[in-house]
């Protein structure tokens, strides 16, 4: 006897050879009629998935390939230039603002990071070390921004056709 089991989830109905007394599929019937993975996933699905993975990874490769190391950091407070410092020399920069906020920037081994900030969320402290061109550390509550620059001057900002 062939019967179609009622499906409360509106999925495609399964056709089974037998049903038990309550009208539900028995475990033996489920195991014998279980769809195989090769019936669900086709060759084209695998090719499409591999294509999307590669298409997502290729731009990341080129983004990280073009990172050039910076040589200086520029610090700005309240959108005003506070100072420029070389990444070659280890130092600690203490920024004390008139409103009482304090930020401490540490330059060590050619990398800069926010060592201390009195802001609540501490996102700037957890941003990590920066040393590549155009990387930033931003402390929004204290309005402090640290940007890495290189000595190399670029001829163009961008190229368009």
List the uncertain runs: none
Distance between the termini: 70 Å
Largest sheet: 4 strands, antiparallel
Output the structural class: alpha+beta
Order of helices and strands: EEHHHEEEEEHEE
Oligomer: single chain
> What's the pLDDT, averaged over the residues?
80
- Helix segment tally: 4
* Percent of residues in helices: 10-25%
- Overall form: elongated
Query: How big is the Rg?
Result: 30 Å
Query: Approximately what portion of the residues adopt beta-strand conformation?
Result: 25-35%
**Main sheet strand line-up:** 4-3-9-8
Total strands = 9
Question: Would you kindly provide a brief summary of this structure?
Answer:
This protein has 4 helices and 9 strands. The protein has 161 residues and is an alpha+beta fold. The longest helix is centred in the middle third of the chain and has 23 residues, at 43-65.
């Amino acid at each position: 006897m062939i019967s179609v089991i009622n499906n409360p989830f509106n999925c495609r109905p399964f056709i089974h050879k037998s049903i038990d007394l309550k009208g539900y599929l028995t475990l033996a019937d489920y195991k014998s009629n279980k769809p195989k993975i090769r019936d669900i996933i086709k060759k084209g699905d695998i090719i499409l998935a591999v294509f999307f993975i590669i298409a997502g990874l290729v731009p990341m490769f080129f983004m990280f390939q073009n990172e050039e190391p910076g040589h200086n950091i520029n610090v700005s407070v309240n959108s005003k230039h506070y100072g420029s410092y070389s990444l070659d020399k280890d130092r600690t920069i203490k920024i004390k603002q008139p409103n009482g906020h304090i930020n401490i920037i540490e330059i060590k081994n050619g990398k800069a990071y926010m060592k201390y900030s009195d802001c609540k969320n501490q996102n700037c402290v957890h941003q990590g070390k920066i040393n590549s061109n155009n990387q930033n550390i931003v402390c929004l509550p204290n309005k402090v921004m640290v940007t890495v620059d290189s000595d190399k001057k670029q001829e163009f900002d961008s190229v368009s056709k």
